[in-house]
Amino acid sequence: LFWLSLNVWLFCRTFLLYYQGLQYYYLHQMLGLGLCVSRASASVLNLNCCLVLLPVCRVLLAFLRGSQKVASRKTRRLLDKSKTFHVTCGVTICIFSVLHVAAHLVNALNFSENYNEDFLSLNAANYRGEDPRKLLFATVPGLTGVIMVLVLFLMCTASTYAIRVSNYDIFWYTHNLFFVFYMLLMLHVSGGVLKYQTNLEEHPPGCFNPNKTLRENVTVPKAFEELFPDYTTEPFPEDLSVPEPFVQNNFMRICSEEPKFQSHFPETWFWISGPLCLYCVERLYRYIRSNKPVTITSVVSHPSNVLEVRMIKDDFKARPGQYVILHCPRVSALESHPFTLTMCPTDTKATFGVHLKVVGDWTERFRDLLLLHSNQDTEVLPIFQQRRYPKLYVDGPFGSPFEESLNYEVSLCVAGGIGVTPFASVLNTLLDGWKCYKLRRLYFIWVCRDIESFRWFADLLCTLHSKLWQENRPDYINIQLYLSQTDGIQKIIGEKYQALNSRLLIGRPRWKLLFDEIAKCNRRKTIGVFCCGPNKISKILHKLSNSSNSYGTRFEYNKESFS
């Protein structure tokens, strides 16, 4: 709402600038309100085209998210809205592009119909009545504008939720047309179609030039009839307004020369050159950083179409909750996908890993390539005995909201299905040692549809539970597993999972009661709420986090969102 209000304010301010600006007097007489709307919408487009790239600068966000860079947790939480801000800027660009296009369609028509022979340099048309379509398709600004509209339409439609879910490839390839869009934008603003007057002192708008020789189509105000009777031809038209600053006590200034017009320097270059260069430099840095393939140490096939990949990479460091982008050329030459780290490298081990759900073409092809070269053995082999896995490149790591889960005294982590992955790295980190972190109590809620899904991290949960019992801190983590659908089997198979079987519940969590219980046990504390799962659960948790309670407990909501 704030961003919408800011854009509307900028639109109105620029509209009034062009409506009242004396340097645009003659152009306004020719184009009318089309000039004001086109320039006002262009100012909003400049701002949003500048800022839309910043939320996708992943390295920059990861740098700012680091606790040593931004000390305030509240400020760091604003970075979690990067995707929302990116989408908001994109929607704003689409809306004001429609206004901009509509205004320029009117301008093209007015340039043709209101062709003025007195101000030849001001005209975009070559003669009166010229076909407006020539201005759209036979000029650089017009043609680049048409192509940009087509590119923006493809990017907008392919970004809808339905297309992203049904065919992610379409979204991926069309979204990368943004580079074409920006190159066209650079050319679009270099045409210099709209011009302003440069000699206001020598030729105030609406002034009278007695030295002008061609007077056939020029009329003189009545104020000059007595002073210059020879130049008087007919009454001054009432519908032609004269700027107030130049009319005082029936006196009008006399101009000494003809008006001179000049095209604006393309301000769009100032707006987008910085962010565009920053984005290009970052992409180059990421390419250099990720150009060496990782060493895959093991591939594990888990129940319910989940694949675990463990890797080693030189000088790779990551924090719990971060994610990486995987690129396998044999799967796709251009396509890559983000996956949350489920295991981070530590001082004692260099291995890191991800769990991925096989749900699309890319993951299916990736799984087939990996399992073709693996016997699904979970053993981690020495590097010189490695199987010949396909080349895999890792870009990252990048920051996510779940880095903050260890910075609260109390955290509530809610996972839905494969959404457990960001919490797995947190649990692995606690297994290595929890005393060095601020976190003193962790509520872990995991909701799955089938019983087999719990086996993805059952060993990890049981190991962590046993360690905390041995250290006399059984209350450090509160584990609750919910099976939303059941076929009668209500236990996780295996004797070693008895600690989890006692925490397995049938049905869905009663979120309101759960929040009330947590608030009661942690009076007057700030609790971090972290969710990675279906939007339905996310909306419920977000609403409950913003609700007040009688215990003085404050809930701060966070949600996983890939930038």
TrEMBL record:
Gene3D superfamilies: Nucleotide-binding domain of ferredoxin-NADP reductase (FNR) module. It catalyses: NADPH + O2 + H(+) = H2O2 + NADP(+); NADPH + 2 O2 = 2 superoxide + NADP(+) + H(+). It is an enzyme of class 1 (oxidoreductase). Pfam families: FAD_binding_8, Ferric_reduct, NAD_binding_6. It is a multi-pass membrane protein. Keywords: Cell junction, Cell membrane, Cytoplasm, Disulfide bond, Endoplasmic reticulum, Glycoprotein, Membrane, NADP, Nucleus, Oxidoreductase, Transmembrane, Transmembrane helix. GO terms for cellular component: endoplasmic reticulum membrane; focal adhesion; NADPH oxidase complex; nucleus; perinuclear region of cytoplasm. SUPFAM superfamilies: Ferredoxin reductase-like, C-terminal NADP-linked domain (SSF52343), Riboflavin synthase domain-like (SSF63380). One of its GO terms (biological process) is defense response. This is NADPH oxidase 4. The gene is Nox4.
